Amino acid sequence: MESFDPAKKAQRREEVFPLDCQKAYELGGRLVESVIGQANPNSAAS
User: Fold this and answer.
1) How far apart are CA 20 and CA 14, in angstroms?
2) CA 33/CA 40 separation, integer angstroms
3) Is the pLDDT of residue 45 over 70?
4) pTM for the structure as a whole
5) Can you give the chain as a three-state secondary structure string?
6) Alpha-carbon dihedral 37, 39, 44, 46, rounded to 10 degrees
7) What's the first-to-final CA gap in the chain, in angstroms?
8) Over residues 1-11, mean pLDDT
9) Separation of CA 26 from chain center
10) What is the C-alpha to C-alpha distance for residues 9 and 3, in angstroms, rounded to an integer?
11) How do residues 18-36 score in pLDDT, each as one tens digit?
12) d(C-alpha 21, C-alpha 41), whole Å
């Protein structure tokens, strides 16, 4: 088992956190689109 390395943790956060935020944002957009599509099934999806 590796010991805790604050520098590596900070570097990983700098690299991975923005990607995770982008993925969460995109997921939220898809969820909203899916809810809107269910609420108004007669509208054409673009």
Assistant:
1) 11
2) 10
3) no
4) 0.63
5) CCCCCHHHHHHHHHHHHHHHHHHHHHHHHHHHHHHHHHHCCCCCCC
6) -40
7) 50
8) 88
9) 5
10) 11
11) 999 999 999 999 999 999 8
12) 30
